[in-house]
Amino acid sequence: MIYLDNAATTRIDEEVLAVMTPFLRENFGNTQSQHSYGRAAANALTEVRDKIAALLSCKPEEIYFVSGGTEAGNTALKGVCAERGKGHLIVSAIEHPALLESAEDMRKLGFTATFLNPDKNGRIEPESVAAAIREDTVFCAVMAANNETGVIQPVKEIGEICKARGVFYYADCVQSACTQPLPTGYCDAFGISAHKFYGPKGAGAIYIKSGSKISRLISGGRQERGLRGGTVNTAAAIGLAKAFELACKERENSAAYLAKLRDKFLSRVFAEIDGTHLNGGGEILPSHANISFDGCEGENILFYLDLNGVAVSTGSACSAGAVTPSRALMAAGLSESRAKSAVRFTFGKYNTFEEVDNTVEILKRAVAAIRK
Ligand code: PLP
After folding, report:
1. Pocket perturbation via mutation, ligand 1, pick of 5, 12, 65, 70 by most ligand atoms within 8 A of CB
2. Mind listing the pLDDT tens digit for each residue in 341-364?
3. Relative to the CA of 219, which of 49, 301, 311, 316 has its CA 20 to 30 Å away?
């Protein structure tokens, strides 16, 4: 099987698994316990928090372990809302549902929200953020890179605007963390998720700038300095830290390798399959290629590829038998037929050039069969 759905999740790195295993077996203590098992777990947690903070050039107390990107986004948006009580939110229309649905939840509680559309390249213009800020705006979410197209967003510029206008800025870095530097210093909070960079699922972290006014999402014990109750999944945090360390160490080489794989794939697809279009423009993550195929439904390509040993995804959602085209592609102004004909190919460090070539051959047969 050729796995080209690395934006959905990645296979765990053996090195990561190796450092996690002892914390699932013999070092199983609860970080809150006062005996030696607990202290060993707590010390290990302190060590990995320090490690992540050093990699992010921030303070250890600015890092909170959470279950992943969804919880990080919920924590930021709902945590700011709970603190402020009322106000206006700005959320880009291309955010992950973690942010979009959180904003909808808050609307039900009386907050107002503006959902910002990107330009035709799928980029949120900083000027549109500036124009959307109102007197009562309390929160803004624009992701570092989009999960469907991979389009990189102007986080630094948006961060400067939000800072100048006193708006809390959250940047979802779930897709970008593997190949791009993290935006410490440009935003009030950002989230990462280990399973997107060869770590375990259910393991993430949120950076929250010290001094930020934010309420907890999960009430409980005093874990994570009272921001997030619940026994810490020590093995997951240790896995996250190792995976993040490797991602940071390999970042440049990995980005260069993925770009070569992806660019070879794109040049072959465009040269050998007519009626193909790249979705998203400007700067795109090296891992991503979102392509529309005239005269095809993305779902049909996905199923054909799956039957022939290639795993990809579409941004479409299937509910009650009907296919709803990707929200992010529609927000960028693509026609419904083009959005429905999109397929997302996302490359990872375990992919090879041979796999790229094999995928193109299978894809050519898929498109020809479907168009017929
Ligand atoms: N944000 C983005 C941009 C994502 O792509 C994803 C997962 O696909 C998430 C958030 C959710 O992350 P998690 O699966 O860790 O909850």
Report:
1. 70
2. 999 999 999 999 999 999 999 999
3. 49
